[in-house]
Design a protein that fits this description.
Helices cover 53% and strands 17% of the residues. Helix 4 packs across helix 5 (87-99) and helix 8 packs parallel to helix 9. Strand 1 (2-6), helix 1 (10-18) and strand 2 form a beta-alpha-beta unit. The protein has one domain: Aldolase class I (TIM Barrel, Alpha-Beta Barrel). An eight-stranded parallel beta barrel has the order 1-2-3-4-5-6-7-8, surrounded by seven helices. The radius of gyration is 19 Å and the shape is globular. It has 213 residues and is α/β, with parallel strands linked by helices. The structure holds erythose-4-phosphate. Residues 6, 26, 28, 106, 126, 128, 130-131, 162-163, 182 line the site of erythose-4-phosphate.
Length: 213
């Protein structure tokens, strides 16, 4: 399973990339607005750390989306154009596919939407599981449904588990066989930590103190 970080903060990307486990980055307009930095500069710099960086179009019509897709994909070869799951988004994904531009279909909340994104030629698609959980639906069930549908066909669109909220989400996504998980920095920081590792290391160090000359 590929691991992406869900952030628009360059320092967070640099830190997690330094662990040697990072495969990509997802950004979105809300994350970019939170950081308040230049969008182009931020995502282009991120491309130096990882091979896939999602940059979301903000136009809402097909023409505008195509214009932004062409612009963003020209910034760096690692850019993946993020396109919302709407009808104009599907047209844009199909256009990008014909031009060899990678896409991430975002705001996916149903298996029907996932099938359409794959048919249109999305490189990856992002079901938002945390937001489904928030709405009283089991988000991980959607991932299981999509992955099971994928087993019947030869769709090469990668299933990217987005809107993850806690470390269990990552384990469950891996058990189901999702291709990618995008994870906020705060959750990534929790993943290497276990209290028995912490106490075990302390005991080793305390014992070493007693014998070293
Ligand atoms: C994914 O690409 C999105 O940026 C993100 O995972 C959304 O997460 P949220 O529901 O926590 O905002």
């Amino acid at each position: 399973m590929k691991i992406f970080i869900d952030t628009a903060n360059l320092d967070e990307v640099a830190e997690i990339a330094s662990w040697g486990i990072l495969d990509g980055v997802t950004t979105n307009p809300s994350l970019v607005a939170k950081e308040g930095k230049d969008f182009k500069e931020t995502v282009t710099k991120m491309c130096e750390y990882v091979p896939e960086v999602s940059a979301q179009v903000t136009a809402t019509d097909h023409e505008g989306m195509i214009k932004q897709a062409e612009e963003y994909s020209g910034w760096h070869k690692h850019i993946v154009v993020k396109v919302p799951m709407v009808k104009d988004g599907l047209k844009t994904i199909a256009y990008c596919k014909s031009k060899g531009i990678k896409t991430n279909c975002t705001l996916v909340f149903s298996a029907n939407q996932a099938i359409l994104a794959a048919k249109a030629g999305a490189t990856m698609l992002s079901p938002f599981i945390g937001r489904l959980d928030d709405a009283g639906q089991d988000g991980m069930e959607l991932i299981a449904e999509i992955v099971s549908i994928w087993k019947n066909y030869d769709f090469d669109t990668e299933v990217l588990v987005a809107s993850t909220r806690h470390p269990r989400h990552i384990i469950e996504a891996a058990e189901i066989g999702a291709d990618i998980c995008t994870i906020p920095f705060k959750i990534l920081e929790k993943m290497p930590v276990h209290p028995l590792t912490t106490s075990g290391l302390k005991r080793f160090m305390d014992d070493w103190e007693k014998v070293k000359s």
